Amino acid sequence: MNQEITSQEIVLKNRSELTITGVKKLESINEQEVYVDTVLGRMLVRGNNLEMKHLDLENESLVVTGKVYLIEYLNQKKNQSEKGFLAKLFKWC
Fold first, then answer.
1. Residue 54, SS3 per DSSP
2. How far apart are alpha carbons 81 and 15 in whole angstroms?
3. Domain extent for 37
4. Is residue 53 part of a domain?
């Protein structure tokens, strides 16, 4: 059975050098935002003067430099329990 590796490390040094492993694809990058598709989901990095220092898709690693303010996983699907609760609430109204 072929299992996909879902291991990931995020290392932030002094808020100025970010290393991410488990990178599948770099979706976009500019001075304020980096969008990355990783083995654990889509990720957003926000900051100032962000730039790609190193990208190696074969080894699934990315290094970004600049001032990092936020690292966040983005959920593309709504939480099913929340959707179910709201659907039930409006059904009874």
1. strand
2. 35
3. 10-92
4. yes
